[in-house]
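Input record (one chain):
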Amino acid sequence: MEQEEIWSADVARRYDTPGTGMFAPEVLGPAVDRLARLAGEGAALEFAIGTGRVAVPLAGRSVPVTGIELSPPMVEQLRTKADESTIPVVIGDMATAVAPGEYSLVYLVYNTISNLLTQARQVECFRNAARHLVPGGRFVVELWVPELRRLPPGQKAMVWECAPGYIGLDTYDVLRQHVVSHHFRFDDGERAQLFRSPHRYIWPAELDLMAQLGGFQLESRHEDWNGAPFTEDSRSHVSVYRLPPAP
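The corresponding structure, as predicted from the sequence alone:
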C-alpha cells in the first residue's frame, strides 16, 4: 500500500470527525495550546498537515502556519476551512519537501512519522525538520509507544480497541518493526467498513538517536499534551527536540 493510495479522496472526505475522537476539544485543545507556546513569536511548519485539524486552530491563535502534505485530496479538505494565503501548503513528502521561509517550530502529530516505512526515511524526516528551523528551533513529535508487551508469544495480531461500532486491530511484523493498523467500523447490519494503514513503529530511545543524527537534543518528553509524566506504562508520548542556539 502506497501512502498516496491510502490517503485518497474518499478517506479525505471521511477524515474529519468534528467534536469527537482526535477532534474532541479535550484532545485538540491542549495540543494547540502547547504548540502555540512553543512557537512563541515565530512561525510554525506542520509536516503532514492533512485536513488542518491542528493547523487551523493554531493559525487562529495568530501563529503563522505553513504545511507540507503528500495527499492533494487532504489539502482539498483543508481548503474548505482556510485558503492558501492563510495556511500555505507545499505538496510533497515530509522527509524531503522544502517549504519557503524559516520557522521556530516544526511539528508532526498523531503518530504520523510512523507512516515513513524505513528507518532511513524517518531519520531524513528529522534532517528535513532541522533544515527548516532557525537556531534554537524545536521539532515536536507525537507518537505511540509500541505495545509489544501486550502481544502474546507466537501471535502476530492484537486488538487494541473494541467499542460499539468499532474494532481496532494491529498486525505485527516484529522483524522489520512494521505494523498494519486495521480499523473496522460497522452498524447493526452485516457489512463493515475497513480502513488499513501501514506503519514502522519506533521506540523512544531509537527516536532520540534519530534526533541526534539530525542535530537535535531531547528537551522534554511527556505522556500527553497536558504534560503528564512519561512512565514505563505510557502508551504515547509528546517529545520536544531542540537545535543548538546560535553561538
